[in-house]
Amino acid sequence: MSDNYGLFYAILGAALVASLGGFGSALGVQMGGKAAAGVTSEKPELFGKLLILQALPGTQGIYGFLIAVLVLINCGVLSGTPQVAMSIDTGLSYFAACLPGIIVLPISAYFQAKMSVSSINMVAKQPDSSGKGITMTVLVETYAVLALLASILMVTGI
Amino acid sequence: MIIPMKKLKLVALKEDKENLLISLQRYGEVMFIKHGDDTNIDTDASNEEIQLQRAEKSISLIRKYKAKHKGFADQIAIDYDEFKTEDPAQEKILATIENADEEINNLRQDNTALQEKLAFYLPWSGLDMMLSDLYMPHYAVIHTGTIETRNMQDFVDMISEYGGEIQKVGVFGYSQTIVYACYEDDDNEIIEKSKNLGFIEVILPSDKKYVSEIIIETEKAITKNRQRIETLELTLAEYAKQTDKIKLFADQAATAIKRRQANIQETVDTVYLEGWVRSDRIVRLKKAITDVTDVFDLELVDPQTDEIPPTVLKNNKFVDAFESVTDMFSKPNPYEIDPNPVMSIWYWIIFGMMMGDAGYGLLMVVVVGFLLKKMKPKGNMRRLFLIIFYGGFSTILWGILFGSYFGFTIFPILLEPINEPLKMLLVSLILGGCHLITGLVIKAYHNLRDKHYMAILSDSISWIVLLIGAGLLFLPATATVGKWMAIAGAAMIILFAGWKQKNPFARLGIGLYSLYGATSYLGDILSYSRILALAMSSAVLGMVMNMLAKMLATNVIGYFFAAIVFIIGHVFNLAMGLLSAYVHTSRLQYIEFYGKFYEGGGTSFQPLTLQLKHIDTVNDNINQ
Fold first, then answer.
1. Does residue A127 register a pLDDT over 80?
2. Nearest alpha carbon to residue B72 among B376, B385, B386, B382
3. What total number of domains does chain A contain?
């Protein structure tokens, strides 16, 4: 391995952000799904509404993947010309740029899932309030969006 | 727009009550007002409830016998005359279906018992004596039972030691069914020994029959039951062809229940009813009454200030679809202006921007357009489909601006989200700013209508000036203008936000506190960055799918798999994108846009009308 193994850090960041985003979303969608399945057993007609609520914590995984792809594009990995000579500084910068995603995505997915479970229980009792439940649950996602934004701005700025 | 409502007060003769209700329900123009203290009203609908339950049960019973048909369900349309008329055969049809189902269930239970009986006797079919003879002999005892095959030889030896007789009858799993006879005196000893060898006594019922006879009888009974079930199922299948008829029974019963539950006050000779009607349907309402009688007293009044009539919206086809978005949040109350016309346009724009791919837009238009035509969904389902359908056109437009076609980039006109995220962010935030300003303008309109002129200045104009000024600050050419506009806006907020206060210090305090609300505007504007996030994630996912497909496409088999990856990948991306765009566009409307001016809290207009759950349309000449 040469001295210029910056590319490793960049890819490490991309790998972590994609993995942790996916981990958070998998956990979150699972939590929502369990609650939704319970309600569906009693009220199958609510399936459509519950599915939306269940899917809400799923976006963090996509955001993590999005950051990872942007890093890979910028490092030339996707175009088949990886910048093998990337300096450690640059590589670590990419890693740092992934940090908002690495930290916020799994956590926000988990908490959004908790909110989604509460909303699912609310919809079970009051099917008409699904719009309100969706809105309250989506509020949590704002911070995942902001973290994504921070990461995107950093990655594209390097 | 929101249709003004009128309160209806109607007095009519008691003898006309039923016909009047039927007619009002047919026209479907009156929503009855419930009074809390109406205790003397006969709203018992238990007979109709039973009828409804029976019909619904019959529908689900015959469903599985219905011939499967391909494609989408047919629409059920009938004439009002048919809907009105009760089928004299209803009772007979329902009873036949119910009885057939009950008999089938009994026969099935019967057959289960018979199968068990058969399983019990089958290992004994080789027994060549009448069952009752097993209990006949003197000085000897006959035992029947099973023994594991591996202990068989020992058992035979043991019995012959005592001078007994033994006969193998049949096989039962890993065991043999046997019958043996021994002297009465040896019986206890043999029982003890046979236990050790694992002999399990099976007591056959005493019966003047051979086992083989019993088996044949049982098999016959089972076959007979099966034939009977088949006949009954054929009957049910015959009725399944008339499912539409039974569905009509259900809807008729549900309609009658609603009519029975209508709140009507009665005196000795008259009935009195109160309700809400749309002010643009008065003619139809009068028609509904005069169809029945000329003897009535009708009064239509405007709602009192303390009364909140239900909200009825009337919009064009485009806006109507987006009403479902507002309804999910809260219906507009009757005293504000309908936000839907403005909201629908913004929804359309932002939804398309979040999807942002011309190929996906085309798919949305074609596929959902096809489904709308074939499935003919009703109610909110139809509205959701329409939102996606209309959103498809906006998606195509944005896709062309972004130059994005199924994840491929071809000649972007405006910008390319993946490569120019900053530019895209700017466009998103500017769009968000315009969205918020629209909300503030609507608020100004509300205040103008209510003649709160100071509020227009303090709540709307000041913020609009501040927002535009803050935006201009970022452009070097207009920075100076922007600075002064922002300062002017802030000054207006400080000076006028407390316009209701007489005390100048309190007024200044409220002004300063209101300016603190600028932080929430910052949050609101930044919230529109989600447009960038969603547009980019769907663009990047689409791009990755194309890349995967390209990697596979190396030879003929590769092309095949590449096509599969391409199709599944893009369908997945489209579905996820639709979900996100729907949810996040709604959120931007609810929190950011409606937060600026919208009150909501209206109730829906639910007139007494025909209850059509199964039947799709009732054709009636009054509606033409």
1. yes
2. B376
3. 1
